[in-house]
């Protein structure tokens, strides 16, 4: 692989951007396409497919084979709240291949004994996100039931275009949340992206079932996500 191709891929990796290396069997130099680059026609359609699937593919463009090698940032889950739901989520998320970070300033809940082997940050989201902002390959699940903890990261997740934003709570609770988020400057279009009540409707009742429903909804959102707006 040419050095300039590697350089572009490394740049995309550092910025947590998706990239596809387009290699034509005719012998032309490989081309690196970053998610958001303007494309059209059948090549653009095929590249969009591999961005969503995360799997390399050989396709035929204008009668000639083209190899598309996709490089996606590893999707991650940031859970706001060190609660029973996130205890269960911590056990099943790695099975699907998702990194999990839990943020909760309540040190009585955010303990290593309850979350052994999990990246646990016992601090306020406002402080954590200064150095570790959300991005388009982040799923955010807010489950503390406390607006003082949940609202800020929910607002930041919507601003960052996270591929999934979910929040625990009843419809009545969410209606109040919507008003608070509007006061924080979020628009109706942004707010409607929040999955609330959180998780796919599987009739979940226990914390473990809610964690399962939430993870299933996160996977669904990732595979069906809108691609980054064309630049």
Report what the structure shows.
- The protein has 231 residues and is α/β, with parallel strands linked by helices.
- The protein folds into two domains: 3-71, no CATH class; 76-223, NAD(P)-binding Rossmann-like Domain (Rossmann fold), CATH 3.40.50.
- It is 40% helix and 19% strand.
- It contains eight helices and nine strands.
- The strands form two sheets. Strands 7-6-5-8-9 form a five-stranded parallel sheet, sandwiched between helices. The protein has a four-stranded antiparallel sheet with strand order 2-1-4-3, with helices on both faces.
- Helix 3 packs across helix 8 (207-223).
- The radius of gyration is 20 Å and the shape is elongated.
- The model has no long low-confidence stretch (mean pLDDT 92).
- Residues 78-218 form the XdhC Rossmann domain.
- This is Putative sulfurylase large subunit (Molybdopterin cytosine dinucleotide biosynthesis).
- It comes from Neorhizobium alkalisoli.
């Amino acid at each position: 692989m040419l050095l300039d191709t590697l350089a572009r891929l490394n740049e995309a990796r550092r910025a947590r951007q998706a990239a596809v290396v387009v290699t034509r069997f005719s012998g032309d130099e490989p081309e690196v396409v970053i998610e958001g680059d303007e494309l059209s026609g059948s090549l653009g359609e095929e590249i969009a497919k591999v961005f969503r699937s995360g799997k390399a593919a050989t396709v035929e463009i204008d009668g000639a084979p083209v190899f598309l090698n996709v490089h996606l940032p590893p999707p991650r889950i940031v859970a706001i709240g060190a609660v029973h739901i996130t205890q269960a989520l911590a056990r099943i998320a790695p099975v699907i291949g998702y990194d999990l970070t839990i943020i909760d300033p309540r040190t009585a809940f955010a303990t290593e004994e309850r979350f052994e082997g999990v990246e646990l940050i016992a601090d306020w989201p406002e402080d954590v996100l200064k150095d570790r902002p959300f991005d388009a390959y982040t799923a955010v699940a807010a489950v503390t039931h406390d607006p003082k903890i949940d609202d800020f990261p929910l607002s930041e997740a919507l601003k960052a275009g996270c591929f999934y934003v979910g929040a625990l709570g009843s419809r009545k609770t969410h209606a109040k949340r919507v008003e608070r988020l509007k006061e924080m400057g979020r628009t109706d279009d942004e707010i409607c992206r929040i999955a609330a009540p959180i998780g796919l409707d599987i009739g979940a009742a226990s914390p473990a079932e809610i964690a399962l429903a939430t993870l299933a909804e996160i996977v669904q959102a990732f595979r069906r996500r809108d691609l980054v707006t064309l630049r």
